[in-house]
Design goal:
This protein has two domains: 55 residues; 151 residues, Muramoyl-pentapeptide Carboxypeptidase, domain 2, CATH 3.30.1380.10. Helices cover 47% and strands 12% of the residues. The strands form two sheets. Strands 3, 4, 5, 6 and 7 form a five-stranded antiparallel β-sheet that branches. The chain has a two-stranded antiparallel sheet with strand order 1-2. It binds zinc ion. Zinc ion binds next to strand 4.
């Protein structure tokens, strides 16, 4: 009788233990499930972590709207045959002397630094032309029209109000025995300017083969100051023109 009671007690105890164990595992399994499922993401976590880490260098966020491309005082202003300066007779307020020419202060300092850096490499670069006023462009354009007719004049000289030189951010440079000629592209100076200009904020504005976009044939001597950030971004992305970078319409000629 005692043995039966003992057996019953033992059976009851075993039952309680089993129930405790069987009710135990579910929470444990649940606890294990999140930990194993969190182990899965954490084991694949290096992938998501390394993906954002490698994505930024591949496509860093460059804010293309951080400066105006319409304001004639913006270093990013885009002037072409479809985008005249507004107002047409705009004149920059901060022109300073650079080699007997004039550029806006920031562009002049950058040009000074670029010329000095080139000189340190044994290369002589000079500023042949820089800021041109609206009135100067009016006279130049009239002279060209009188000499060659309007059609040819418009190929050779920008209409007043449509010249990048009027922004005070563009310059024609020379060196290596070639000034404002296509041969500049073949000189050490011309090749250095194309390669290193962006380090100083300058880009070759009218590259080879982009006349259908810029409206100008290849001008290896015509450099445009846009600031180091934009210039190096253009170079890094291999973007030929400001029009393409900013998604602007091609400007092969004057509208109308
Ligand atoms: Zn020029």
């Amino acid at each position: 009788m005692i043995a039966v009671v003992l057996l019953a007690v033992v059976a009851a105890v075993v039952g309680i233990v089993r129930e405790a164990r069987s009710s135990g595992p579910p929470p444990t399994a649940d606890a294990a499930a999140p930990s194993s499922s969190s182990a899965a993401p954490s084991s694949s976590a290096p992938a998501p972590t390394s993906t954002p880490a490698t994505t930024p260098p591949a496509e860093p966020t460059f804010d293309r709207a951080q400066q105006s491309i319409d304001d004639p005082d913006s270093t990013w202003v885009v002037v072409d045959k479809a985008r005249p300066l507004a107002p047409l007779d705009h004149a920059p307020a901060d022109l300073v002397d650079i080699g007997g020419r004039q550029l806006r202060a920031e562009a002049a300092q950058a040009m000074h630094d670029m010329i000095a850096a080139a000189a340190a490499q044994g290369l002589g670069i000079s500023v042949q032309s820089a800021y041109r006023s609206y009135d100067y462009q009016v006279d130049t354009f009239r002279n060209q029209v009188a000499r060659f007719g309007e059609e040819r004049a418009e190929i050779q000289v920008a209409r007043p109000g449509y010249s990048e030189h009027q922004t005070g951010l563009a310059a024609d440079v020379g060196g290596g025995g070639c000034d404002i000629e296509s041969c500049f592209a073949t000189t050490d100076e011309g090749q250095w300017v194309a390669a290193h200009g962006p380090e100083f904020g300058y880009v070759v504005r009218y590259p080879d083969g982009a006349q259908d976009v810029t409206g100008y044939k290849y001008e290896p001597w015509h450099v445009r100051y846009v600031g180091v950030a934009l210039a190096t971004e253009l170079q890094r992305t291999g973007t030929r023109t400001l029009e393409e970078f900013f998604g602007l319409p091609a400007a092969p000629g004057y509208p109308g």
